Amino acid sequence: MNFFILSLIKSGLVAFVLMTTLAYLQWIERKVIAHIQLRVGPNRVGPHGLLQPLADVIKLLTKEDVSPTHVNTFFYYLAPFLAVVLALISISVIPFGPGIDIFGIKTNMELADINVGVLFVLGISSIGVYGVALGGWASNNKYALLGALRSSAQMISYELPMALAIAAPLLLVNSVNFREIVGAQDGFMLGFIPRWTIFQVQGAFPQIIGFLIFLIAGFAETNRVPFDLPEAENELVAGFHVEYSSMKFAAFFMAEYANMITVSCMATLLFLGGWHPLFPVELGSNYIPTFVFASAGIIMLYHGLHPARPFDRITLPIAGIIFIGIGLLFQAPVISQVLIPLFWFASKIGVIFFLFVWIRGTLPRFRYDQLMRFAWTFLFPIAMVNLLLTGLIVALFS
Amino acid sequence: MNAAFFLLFATAAVVSAVSLVVQRHPISSALSLIGVMVSLACIYLQLGGDFIATAQLIVYAGAIMVLFVFVIMLLNAGTEVGVDRRPWTRWLGILLIAAFLGIIARIAVEFLPKTENVEFGAFKLGGAQAIGQRLFTYYALPFEATSVLILIAIFGAIILARKEIE
Asked: Choosing a second label site near A9 at 20 to 30 A (CA), which of A74, A326, A398, B97?
C-alpha cells in the first residue's frame, strides 16, 4: 500500500488512541487517588464515573476563555501551544510492537522508525521546557514567573541524571534505535528470566539502579509529585499556569499527561523489554491476556447474579460478556499478532503509570533546596557511577 | 517534495535570523535564535545527518538556549530602548548591507569550487554509530583535546564564580 496512505491511517489511529488515553488517564488517576484516600472518586457521570473525562472536556471547551490584559499576548498564546505540540511529537518515534503482516500489508507498529530515536525523544523533551518557561514569563505574574523559573531550573538539573541513566542500557544493547534496543532484549536466561536490561547479567550490569534513577528523574521532568514545585499550590497558587483558563489550561494539562506517557514508554522500551512478554511463549504467555480479561468477565458475571444494587443485574453481565469477548479476541488468528505485543507493552506502561499515581497519593512535596541538592549531590553521582560500572563490565566481558 | 521541505526550513531559518536582529525584546530575540537552530536541525536531518540534527536540538536549542532564556527571565530584561538616529543612516545601512551581500554572492559564485548538486538521502553515514567510530578513531586527538578544553573552561567558570562571593 502507498506509504503516505498507510502513514496517514497509522497517525490517525495513534492520535485517536492517545487522545482517548490521555482523557482516561485522568479518570484513572482520580479514582486511584480517591481509593488511596478512602474516598469514592468521580462516580456521578456515567457508570463508575466513566463518562467524567467527556464531561471535563465539554466543561473546558465551553468555559470562558479569559485573556488577561497585562500579558505579553503573542508568547502568552504561544506557550500552551508549544507545550502540547512538543509533548505529543515524541510519541511519533515510539514503537508499540513488532513488525506485523495484515492481509499482505507489512508494516511496523510505530509512526516513524528513525535511527536516533532515543536522542530524538531527549531532544524534544529538552525543548519542552520552553512551553512552561514562556507561559510563566508571558503571564506577567509573580507566582507564574517563580513557577516558570523553578520549572526550568528543575528540568535542566534532572535532564543530566536522566541522560546518564539512559546511556547505561544503551551500552548494553549497542544502539540508539528503539526497534534495535527492544530486539536486543528478546529471549530468556535459564529459560524463564527475560533478558530485559534491568535483569541482564550475562556480560552485562543489570540496570536496576539505572531504572530507578530514570524513574526519579522522569517524575521531576514531568513536574509530578513529589517534584511538583513549579505548581506548588500552597506557595505559588498554581505556578506557571495560574493565568491560563479554558482550553489554554487544558493544553498544559494534556501536555503533562502526554509527557507521563512518553516517560513510561521510554522506561518500558529501555529497561523493561518493550513488548516482549514476561515469560516465554512456550510456557503459555500468549494465554495471559485472555486469562486476565476472561477472569475479569467471569467475576462480573458472578456479581451480576448476586447484585448489590438493582441495576447491577443488567450492567454487570453485559460488561462481563464484553470482557470475555475481548479476551477471546486475543486468540483470533490475524488480530492476535497485533494485540498480544500491545497487551504486554500497555501493561508495562500501566504499571509505571500506576506508580506515578501511587507516589502522588503517598509522598509529600520536596522543599526547593532539597530538590536541587538531591539532583546534583545524590542522583547525578550515582548515575555517573552506574554508567562507568556498566561501561567497565561491558568492556571486560563482551 | 525534498526541495519543498528544504525551501520551507531554509526560509524559516532566514526569517528567524532576521527576526533575531530586528526584535526589540531580548526574549523575542532568544526565541528567534531557537527558531534558527530548529530549522537548521531539520535541514541536517534532511541531508542525512541524523545524529548532528538531534545533537543540535539537545545541545543548542535545548541546553544552551534554555540557559539564555533563564538568564533573561531572571534579570527581567525589558524592551530595548531605541536611540535617536538620523533618518538617512537607515537608508545608508540598507545600501551598505545590499552591497555587502552582493560582494559575498559574487565571491561565492566566482571563487568557490564547483561541486555537483547535493542529493537528499544520498549521505548515509550520519548515524550515531558512524559518527562515534570516526570520533574515537580518526578524530580521537581533536576530540580529546576539546574535552580537556571544556574541562578547563569549567574550572575557569568555578574559579570566577568563587571570587565573586568573597
From this structure: A326
Place of cell 506557550: A79
Q: Do A129 and B63 touch (CB under 8 A)?
A: no
- Which residues 47-106 in chain A show a CB within 8 A of chain B? 75
CA A203 vs. chain centroid, Å, equals 30
A51, amino acid identity: L
Q: Which helix (H) or strand (E) holds A100?
A: strand A97-102
Chain A closest CA to B57's CA: distance in Å? 5
Bridge partners (DSSP) listed for residue A193 = A189
Cell numbers for A228, please give them: 511538583
* Chain A residue with Cα closest to B124: A115
- Is the pLDDT reported for residue A213 higher than 80? yes
Handedness of CA A53, A345, A335, A92 (dihedral sign): positive
Whether the CB of B158 is below 8 Å from some CB of chain A: the reply is no
* Preferred mutation among A122, A130, A134, A177 to probe B, highest tally of B CBs within 10 A: A130
B63 touches A: beta carbon within 8 Å: yes
| CA–CA separation, A273 and A277 (whole Å) | 8
For residue A367, the SS3 value is: coil
Q: Does B67 touch chain A (CB under 8 A)?
A: yes
A148 and chain B: CB distance < 8 Å anywhere? yes
Give the relative orientation of helices A117-127 and A73-89 as an angle to the nearest 10 degrees: 160
* Cross-strand partners of A99: A108
Picking from A123, A152, A175, the nearest residue to B58 by CB comes out as: A123
Task: Find cell 528544504 and name the residue.
Answer: B6
Q: What's the confidence (pLDDT) of residue B12?
A: 92
Taking the Cβ of residue A368 and every Cβ of chain B, the question of whether any pair is shorter than 8 Å is answered with no
For the segment A272-310, what is each residue's pLDDT rounded down to a tens digit? 888 888 877 777 777 888 888 888 888 888 888 887 777
Joined together, the cell numbers standing for residue B153 give 573552561
